[in-house]
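Q: Please design a sequence for this.
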């Protein structure tokens, strides 16, 4: 939980993916997230959190679907969505916070 709090308080925007290795949708998101990470470079972060290893965090954040994506900026969750998202949407959202 402490590492998650550090991510929330990051000085750069953070795109979080809460995923399960058992979810086909999460597997499909891998390439999209890699491309977003390349596009934003050092201006932000893309972090994947395996909820099979972080069940307590999933409960606290009420994660019910996979993948669940969140963007955190300066301590606040500014965007959250379940399901597959496309590259342009995620890149555009991240670029709003630079």
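A: Design:
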């Amino acid at each position: 939980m402490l590492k998650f709090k550090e991510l929330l308080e990051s000085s750069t925007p953070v795109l979080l993916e809460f995923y399960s290795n058992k979810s086909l949708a999460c597997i499909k998101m891998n390439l999209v997230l890699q491309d977003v990470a390349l596009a934003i470079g050092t201006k932000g972060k893309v972090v994947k959190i395996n909820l099979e290893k972080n069940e307590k965090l999933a409960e606290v954040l009420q994660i019910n679907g996979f993948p669940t994506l969140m963007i955190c900026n300066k301590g606040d969750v500014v965007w959250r969505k379940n399901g597959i998202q496309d590259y342009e949407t995620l890149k555009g959202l991240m670029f709003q916070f630079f």
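Q: Thanks. Anything notable?
A: The longest helix spans residues 24-40. The chain is about 40% helix and 25% strand.
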